[in-house]
Write a structure and sequence with these properties.
The chain is mostly beta strands. It has helices spanning 102-107, 231-237, 289-297, and strands spanning 4-8, 13-17, 22-27, 53-56, 78-79, 93-99, 112-120, 126-134, 142-153, 160-163, 169-172, 178-181, 187-188, 193-197, 203-208, 213-220, 224-229, 249-263, 268-279, 282-283, 286-287. The protein has a single domain, classed as Distorted Sandwich (Beta-galactosidase, Chain A, domain 5), CATH 2.70.98. It has three helices and 21 strands. A nine-stranded antiparallel β-sheet has the order 5-6-7-8-19-16-15-10-13. It has a seven-stranded antiparallel β-sheet with strand order 4-9-18-17-14-11-12, with no helix packed on it. Strands 1-2-3 form a three-stranded antiparallel β-sheet, with no helix packed on it. The termini are far apart. The chain binds 6-O-phosphono-alpha-D-glucopyranose. Residues 48, 61, 68-69, 173, 194, 226, 228, 251 line the site of 6-O-phosphono-alpha-D-glucopyranose (G6P). 6-O-phosphono-alpha-D-glucopyranose is lined by residues 48, 61, 68-69, 173, 194, 226, 228, 251.
Length: 298
């Protein structure tokens, strides 16, 4: 079917599908899966693969006239034969590229190159770098939004909290995108959540209390953050998602939505998301000082 590419840095391994340019698996040194992939995921067009890390381009959600989350996640990408040099010290990477198709030109009449580099750092961090270039020959600029829609695997959603988003404004997709302000010192999950946090700091942490694992997400040129869990009712309504699977996943991903990017012909934009899984020992509402020190060192 669709080609997969795997890279391995002795043990941490990553699987990337050419369909969607999507990372569908990321295992750490102990073979533990870091990303959620639905047991009911479809690997066939026109459905995007439910889980992993989806590349949303040139539109996120329904914030535009294109299909939900744009077309990039539903296209067959190619291996990039002339990739740019990696920004990391890693020599362990996969490079993919997506260019416009005749079909896409009907709805988004632009010539572009979207390059994606998926790299594993020497210590096992996952680094995604996207480069988007305007190749229009007619002199026209184009505008787009973008996201790494990242499905983390978690032990139990009720034991998870996301830190780094306190006091920020967000658009609440459950209330017609109205602008709200985060009141809590962390985001916790007791019902459906579907938000876009605006102008978030470059580091966001997702703490899985039960698993004692923290995902430290760092981002560049991607000011916003998508946070989503469908909860039970929506989970049941999605054909490619198990009714109970909402309990073991959480989407937290770097995005650029509020201020779309405009590129003139020849211009290039670059956006990056880096995830470091670190052990955490979070208990009773207080951060363990050892963990704070460890996170400061990262
Ligand atoms: O079902 P999908 O098209 O993959 O979208 C899954 C989710 O993605 C984002 O987080 C949106 O904010 C949600 O509204 C949407 O339900």
């Amino acid at each position: 079917m669709y080609n997969t590419k795997s890279i391995s840095n002795s043990f941490p391994t990553i699987r990337v599908y050419l369909y969607g340019g999507q990372v569908t698996s990321w295992k750490n040194n102990s073979g533990e899966q870091q990303l959620f992939l639905s047991k009911k995921a479809s690997f066939k067009p026109p459905k995007a693969i439910r889980g992993g890390i989806q590349i949303c381009f040139p539109q996120l959600g329904n914030h535009g006239v294109l299909e939900q989350h744009g077309f990039a996640r539903n296209r067959l990408w190619s291996v990039d034969e002339s990739p740019p040099l990696p920004d990391t010290t890693s020599d362990c990477h996969i490079d993919l590229i997506l260019k416009q198709s005749e079909e896409d030109m009907k709805t988004w009449p632009h010539s572009y190159e979207l390059r994606l580099q998926v790299a594993l750092s020497p210590r096992g961090d996952l680094i995604l770098t996207s480069r988007i270039k305007n190749k229009n020959a007619d002199g026209k600029p184009f505008q787009f939004t973008f996201a790494y829609h990242t499905y983390f695997s978690v032990s139990d959603i009720s034991e998870v909290r996301v830190e780094g988003l306190d006091t920020l404004d967000y658009h609440d997709n459950l209330q017609s995108k109205i602008r709200c302000t985060e009141q809590g010192d962390a985001v916790v999950f007791e019902s459906e959540v579907d938000r876009i946090y605006l102008s978030a700091p470059p580091k966001i942490v997702t703490i899985d209390h039960e698993k004692k694992r923290t995902f430290v997400l760092r981002k560049k040129e991607l000011p916003d953050v998508v946070v989503w869990n469908p909860w039970d009712r929506k989970a049941k309504a999605m054909p490619d998602f198990g009714a109970e699977e909402y309990k073991c996943m959480l989407c937290v991903g770097a995005a650029r939505i509020e201020k779309p990017i405009t590129l003139r012909p020849g211009e290039e934009w670059q956006g990056r998301q880096e995830i470091s899984p670190v052990p955490s020992s979070y208990s009773s509402g207080l951060l363990d000082p050892e963990m704070i020190q460890q996170m400061q060192r990262i």
